[in-house]
Amino acid sequence: MIDIDRLCPGCMNDNSGEKICSICGTDMSYQNDSSCLPVKFMLSERYVIGKVLGINAEGITYIAWDTASEKAVHIKEYFPKGISTRNPDKTVSVVEGNEFYYNEGLMDFIEINKKLIATELQSIISVLTVFEENGTVYAATPIVSGITLNSFLEKNGGSLRWEQARPLFLPLIDTLNGLHYEGIIHGGISPETIIVGRDGKLRFSGICIPRLRMANSNGFAELYSGYAAAEQYGKLEEKLSEASDVYALSAVLFRVIIGTVPPSAEARLAQDTLSIPARFADELPRQVLVAMANGMQINVQNRTKNIDTFKNELVYGETQENIRRTANNRTANKPTKETDNKPSSKSKGGSVKYAAISAGVTAALFLVIAIVLCIVFKDEIFGTNEPIFNNSEIASMPDVDSIGEVDPGAAESVILYEVPNLAGKYFYQLEDEEDYERFKFVIKGKEFSDKYERGMICDQSVAAGASVQNETEIQVTISLGPKELTVANVVGLDEMSAKLELLKQGFLYENIIVEEMYDSESAPGVVLRQTPEYNETVNAEIIVTIYINSYEGDIVEPGSDDENDYGGFNDLFN
Fold it and tell me: pTM, whole model, 2 decimals?
């Protein structure tokens, strides 16, 4: 067993008692910032906390040592930026007035990581466990030895040929399809959040709560320029969706093959400068160009809607082209008989589907030709920049002696704005509405409401329809939902699922208490009993106690992959 006192906080290796780690160069006296868990802090009586690896709006990521498996792992701590504080005893508290947003994010954090535990998708960094402690939630993930796709490209000439990229991207595409099936939108796909493992496989990292992937007024969103879709900047009415991930993956493929970062979607809204050098247009298969072009459409309505359609366009484009050539060979007046040249089963949609896609390709080509013609003959089509008339052609204007007297004592005119009706909206929606930017919104407090769901605005300090000046402060009251709730049945669920169910109902996080109960006849770790009991109607602020089975049953050691079996980066394309 490794001596914990000799663990390097930077890499979690035994540094033999040296002051400076010979493996990673970290000073053994290194300490984390006071807002984070300290080095050597024992979490869940199992994980020894090391150096902070990253901080974002969702929380903090640490390297840690798992004393059970005797391996280094990563620990993600839910610690939302701006609304969380670290207490002297290292527990986490919520800044007053932000409890709803904390709990909303916490539910998302639990739900996403529980889904990642259950999934067997090959191109993600899996989650080993999710557990609660210190008033927050943690997720443990294995350490995948590798580098970011961005670093990999820099070490390999800046780009890859399509023939090289294709086998790398297909498993990634299938995994993204699987994530969408589970209801998980990544929202942050980029060369910085795709890891190239030492085994040569690509894996998604950076999967987090959706709020982190949409721009908002607090500035905490984490978006990757060139890869985030326009709707993520709040520039379109659309919300984060599967189409957002299609845009990002198309942009990553563009970066990998073309070798340059695409212009940001935000800039493209003002002036679309996205272009492909001529040599790539000649060299790349047409279906790859079409798939990227459709996937990177700025407007969601024009963009490929889901990853399955994107894959079909990217991989089976040859079938589409064959259909197009067949259609062009038919005469207008003499219909031909059906032939045996049908698309293979892998087209997943038949000739009608690919004929439709082919028509889209043809339309896209005509559009490109039209744009080129407009550029070449722009003067003939749009005219020149010469003025329409010159000064000599302007009719003489009548002389005016005076435009009136100036009154220095006159009051300055003030523009007034009508206050909107905020009832029934969520507070975060106010940040996304461009028309609301002229007002300042502050949470006044919270109260129970039978009319509005938990988290909705139920009252406002300035009545809807009133006329106010720019930057007027409007205080809003947030609904806690109905004062009385009917308790859900959580018996038989594991602890985390039970808490998640109670949180969704509207019970307060701090009022959910866990006690232990032993029953060797029941499954380990499940809820054996709950108070109040199922179907009781209770006050929403009541203490809810769940009794977890302390019986451990057969203890199974966690499995592991042998990281030393990985091949080298230089062998990937040999």
Answer: 0.65
